[in-house]
Amino acid sequence: MEILDGKKISEQIKEEIAQEVSAMKERGEKVPHLAAVLVGNDGASLTYVGSKVRSCEKIGFESTLVSLPDTTTEEELLVKIKELNEDASIDGFIVQLPLPKHIDEQKVLMAIDPDKDVDGFHPTNFGKMALELETFIPATPFGILELLKRYNVETSGKNTVVIGRSHIVGRPMSILMSRKGFPGDSTVTLTHSRTKDLKAFTKDADIVITALGSPDFLKADMVKDGVVIIDVGITRVPDETKPKGYRITGDVDFEEVAPKASYITPVPGGVGPMTIAMLLKNTLLARERHNAK
Ligand code: NAD
């Protein structure tokens, strides 16, 4: 069994990006600039946005945090997005989800200029992804592809089962794994909460990608020997023995499943750190594409 070490690989990727940024500076070019829009003060969102901004600073990007109160109207947010679309100094930006209930998330994501949509959530970019055209691949799926690539995990002709059909992880992952090339060329089954007899699918899978948000959901009796496990789940489980009063748990019962797996991502330290690294990668790509225009 080999651990797919997202922490280590994400550090490597960030180091590679930092070197590229230094080279850009030496050539007298503008460095990539990422903006993050945060509406309200949801604890988890604050943590995520904070670490995205800090990562930018560490690798030499410019970053801007646009922090808006939770009373912000949809109209006000759309005005802010228009400003960011038109601001030539900003290469890419993200709107941290979830948004407060009174704001239509889809409408907001649709308002982002696809050329600056480094989260890859705009329908134009999602469509391009499905058509195997140059685009921004959503950061979490992009991170999974990169992990598979750097560990040279065979995906061609394999049976891949994705659990969860969210627009940000499960659905794009199912598309990406079926695309031509490496990593891809898999035969993909996308499963979800209405799937009957999930175990019948996972038992037969060479690769299982879990993105449902249900702690320790995938058990050893649900997979075959030699399976590749990608655990996207992040759930805070109350734990009084931890300083924060909780621990982070994935969708996979790691203790049980790891001995049967050929490769497995741990939680934490697997897919999570890759997500930020690939957001930075997308921002670098945005900068390079703007330069090339
Ligand atoms: P979501 O919460 O939007 O949707 C969950 C999906 O799981 C749904 O499609 C649902 O049909 C499916 N599902 C629920 N119960 C099921 C069951 N019993 N059997 C089969 N399918 C079932 O999903 P999301 O936003 O993709 O998040 C999933 C998990 O991944 C969460 O824990 C989230 O925190 C985590 N996440 C992690 C990262 C990261 O960077 N590592 C990024 C995004 C999400």
TrEMBL record:
> What are the Tetrahydrofolate dehydrogenase/cyclohydrolase catalytic domain coordinates in residue numbering?
4-119
Which keywords accompany this UniProt record?
A: Amino-acid biosynthesis, Histidine biosynthesis, Hydrolase, Methionine biosynthesis, Multifunctional enzyme, NADP, One-carbon metabolism, Oxidoreductase, Purine biosynthesis
Residues reported to bind NADP(+): G164, R165, S166, I234
Domain Tetrahydrofolate dehydrogenase/cyclohydrolase NAD(P)-binding span(s) in chain numbering = 138-290
Catalysed transformations (reactions): (6R)-5,10-methylene-5,6,7,8-tetrahydrofolate + NADP(+) = (6R)-5,10-methenyltetrahydrofolate + NADPH; (6R)-5,10-methenyltetrahydrofolate + H2O = (6R)-10-formyltetrahydrofolate + H(+)
Pathway entry = One-carbon metabolism; tetrahydrofolate interconversion
- State whether keyword Oxidoreductase applies: yes
Q: Which family does it belong to?
A: Belongs to the tetrahydrofolate dehydrogenase/cyclohydrolase family.
Tell me the function of this protein.
Catalyzes the oxidation of 5,10-methylenetetrahydrofolate to 5,10-methenyltetrahydrofolate and then the hydrolysis of 5,10-methenyltetrahydrofolate to 10-formyltetrahydrofolate.
What protein am I looking at? Bifunctional protein FolD
Q: Look up and give the organism this protein is from.
A: Neptunitalea lumnitzerae
